Amino acid sequence: MDVAKRKQLVQDYIEAYNRFDVDGMLRPLHEEVVFRNVSNGEVTLTLSGKEAFCQQAQQALHYFSQREQRVTEWQLADNRAEVLLDYSAAAAIDFPNGLKAGDTLQLQGKSVFQFANGLIVSIDDIS
Q1: pTM for the whole thing?
Q2: What is the mean pLDDT of residues 15-20?
Q3: CATH classification number, 3-126, choose in 3.40.50.2300, 2.10.50.10, 3.30.950.10, 3.10.450.50
């Protein structure tokens, strides 16, 4: 798969995420996608398969009233894309970590995407 195709898959996924469009997020994903969230060097969530990803994405719709991932840098090589991100969100609920509804969250992180059969086969969100 060429660089332009890989970049387009990632852009489609991020744009759908920003629109709260779960179907759009699922479109570029492989059936056997693996998603990992890594926070402070620790894996806090692992999902295997498109169905598990869909269920988590549907639940997460209620966590924020606004959210945006904005790519600040691309690194594309082989069957992988690494993007540096500015992330902002407004909480829609109170979280156990002390974040309250209405609070804003701003983070920088990166997402690493890997590809197989013309689709995204893994996503590691790292913050």
Answers
A1: 0.94
A2: 98
A3: 3.10.450.50
